[in-house]
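Protein modeling request. Please complete all fields; requests missing the sequence field cannot be processed.
Requester role: graduate student
Desired output: 3D structure, token encoding
Chains: 1
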Amino acid sequence: MNKFMKKITILAIMLINMLGLTACVNTGADTSKTPGESKMTMEMELDKDYDDKDPFVNEKLFCVSEDLDELNADGTLKMDGEAIVLEVKNNKTKEVLWSKTWEGNVKSEPLSISLEKMSKAEEYVVTLTGTKINYAAIEITFDSNLVQERVKPS
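Delivered output (154 residues):
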């Protein structure tokens, strides 16, 4: 292979790697749905050994592959601890798009999230913040197959 072909091959590999690092990845898709209808499910947990400082914070990034006027999600929360706050924010501006707080133990409580004007140009973060947590778990399933979890911030 001549030098020109080697350079083209290296450039192509670098481009593919860059796209892979910046692209949205659907790592939490619910595979029980038929192909093309998979909806992303996000799971987050905290326990007393999660961190050595209070409050505990766990975050997951996501994006949408198309602009959406409305995005809804349903989920459940379980908690043994003092308090927990669940927020959905714009990761760049830190604007809170949705928030709910629970205090005291929660055996299993359903929750609904409603978001408006989601942009494919933006990146969003789900933040779970707990104080004096022994255990907390949340599971959220978005109602659109256009939601994808991000591995790294853009």
